[in-house]
Specification:
The chain has about 260 residues and is α/β, with parallel strands linked by helices. It is built from nine helices and seven strands. Strands 3-2-1-4-5-6-7 form a seven-stranded parallel sheet, with helices on both faces. Strand 4, helix 4 and strand 5 form a beta-alpha-beta unit. Helix 1 crosses helix 7. The longest helix has 22 residues. The radius of gyration is 18 Å and the shape is globular. The termini are far apart.
Length: about 260
């Protein structure tokens, strides 16, 4: 039985960096890299010191979950690490954004992550782990990024509760809550034909910083989530102290939004 790692959204950004740094965490017989872009997935074969199985799927499509499930049933691996990184956001007023995008964020950020976890857990054993990529946005309501923030709140709460449910099996569930991170995320989040919603970024981290903080935090058995970076940590600290109505108004003022 092969010991494997599975990473969704592995073709770029945080997902790709997780794939590259898996060697610093554990040893695997094979890495399954999942994303829509097959060409970028294939590039990982030269950057990872383990055999790589590339799987081109759009996880927002339920048929892709069926295809992934069939692969699991056929190969019956021992999944030591599952990293649910696939997701996207849109920076736009709710009524001006498309219904397709609003539902698409829910489909990929929430439904696909839930489905990936559900169908993979039967192939996990004691010592295995699920790493779910949430966001600092999970801790507060954010006007003009409201659906994305709500989906990440789901990821964080789902992960923390599931971690306790699976504790008796020795399977750990861990949420990562990055702040703004330099990646292709912004290519989809921002409509360059319109005035930008986000005009001010308190900090901009690199994927390398996110993965380094994650691997370090995973070594602490009392943790079920991590907020990489001092500025990000301080923002969450303040958000927990202040009324959310005030937090939202501060956000609107900072971004010069009505």
């Amino acid at each position: 039985m092969k010991n494997i790692a599975i990473i969704t959204g592995a073709s770029s950004g945080i997902g790709k960096q997780f794939a590259i740094t898996l060697k610093d965490h554990k040893t695997y017989d094979e890495v399954w890299a999942i994303a829509r872009n097959k060409e970028r997935l294939d590039e990982l074969k030269n950057e990872i010191p383990f055999p790589v199985k590339t799987i081109s799927l759009d996880l927002s499509n339920p048929d892709s979950i069926k295809e992934y499930t069939a692969i699991l049933e056929e190969e019956k691996p021992n999944v030591k690490t599952l990293i649910n990184n696939s997701g996207y956001g849109k920076f736009e007023a709710f009524e001006q954004s498309s219904l397709e995008d609003n539902l698409g964020m829910i489909d990929l950020n929430c439904k696909a992550l839930t489905a990936m976890s559900y169908v993979t857990i039967p192939y996990m054993t004691a010592g295995s782990e699920i790493i779910n990529i949430a966001s600092v946005a999970a801790f507060q309501p954010i006007p003009y990024i409201n659906v994305y923030a709500a989906t990440k709140a789901y990821v964080l709460l789902f992960s923390r509760a599931l971690n306790l449910e699976l504790k008796s099996k020795g399977i750990r569930v861990f949420a990562v809550c990055p702040f703004w991170t330099k990646s292709r995320f912004f290519d989809r989040a921002i409509d360059k034909q319109k005035d930008p919603i986000v005009k001010k970024y308190a900090a901009m981290y690199l994927p390398e910083q996110i993965t380094k903080a994650t691997w370090k935090a995973l070594k602490r058995n009392n943790k079920d989530y991590v907020i990489p970076g001092f500025i990000a940590t301080m923002q969450v600290f303040l958000v927990k102290l202040l009324p959310h109505k005030l937090v939202m108004n501060i956000w609107l003022n900072d971004q010069k939004l009505k």
